[in-house]
Amino acid sequence: MTTTTPAVPIAPAPAAPRAGMVAGAKKTLSSRTGSAVALVIALLWTLPTFGLLISSFRPEDQIKTTGWWTFFSSPALTLDNYQEVLFGSASNGQLAGFFLNSTMIVIPGVIFPVVLATLAAYAFSWMQFRGRDILFVAVFALQIVPLQMALIPLLRLFNAGPIGQLTDAVPYLSVWFAHTAFALPLAIFLLHNFISQVPGELIEAAQVDGAGHVTIFRLIMLPLLMPAIASLTIFQFLWVWNDLLVGLTFAGGGDDIAPITARLAELAGTRGNEWQRLTAGAFVSMVVPLAVFLSLQRYFVRGLLAGSVKG
Question: What is the pTM of this model?
């Protein structure tokens, strides 16, 4: 006689706690309350910039005696502040020349680390060589080294021997090298996270078809990495453009290659009361990074979401 054991129904697995938390967070953020809070935060975040813009067009006497919000009760506009900071005397203006210096610093200061970090991240992710993991950990550990600790050794390096002669011939070289060196550890780490999440089957299929690392990097990796590269480019541009310490240290103390931030620090005057120049100069320096961010905003968002690709 054969006995059959009745099948025991299997209860469905409970939903993952993280999925429930994500769904709850999405519901909260998409609610009317979440939208209202986001709107209030956006207004509070934008208010100082709006006040700076209004103040940059106000006459000197009104800036020094009243707040920017009084503009709406007694409006008065002038372009004298911008005229003074862009084309004024050497003691309180000529920001246009420093604007060009920052442009000469920021373009190579962005291109060099992004290109080198992209190549290095691919090598750490998909190329096999001895000591790869140890070298990657060493590069990652460099992020904890304070920037200030490296300033004096780098200055000694740039002022000694053939390197000193080379930096004398190319004045911007020391600033470019400093920004590249300080940006590479974090840039390599960020891009490595994106590249390592590309499905391995895609790389293996390309290798079966006879593609080498150069072909894989150029035809497969670069198109996939463009959002991540654009995000890193935005970050690096903002860091270099708004930098004061590195530019001021490696510019040699002169105005020939000093960035715009070095000039902004002097616009307030020796007594710190020339606010009309400072507001106009600050807004001039803000226009370029703001334009870069707005023009690359869609790539920036894609770069933040690109890490969801899993291998």
Answer: 0.75
Q: Which of 53, 3, 1 is nearest to 290 (CA)?
A: 53
pLDDT tens sequence across 116-136? 999 999 999 888 888 888 998
Give the integer Cα–Cα distance in Å for 259 and 174: 13
- Where are the chain's structural domains? 22-77, 87-308
CA-wise closest residue to 273 among 63, 96, 32: 63
> Is the sign of the CA dihedral 300, 214, 140, 180 positive or negative?
negative
Q: Produce one character per residue of 145-177: b if its CB has 16 or more CB atoms within 10 Å, e if not.
A: eeeeebbeebeeebeeeeeeeebeeebbbbbbb
User: What residues contact residue 202 under an 8 Å CB cut-off, 6+ apart?
Assistant: 220
Domain formed by 87-308, architecture: Orthogonal Bundle (1.10)
d(CA 126, CA 113): 20
Alpha-helix runs per DSSP H in 30-146: 32-56, 60-65, 80-87, 95-126, 132-141
Residue 148 identity (one-letter amino acid):
Q
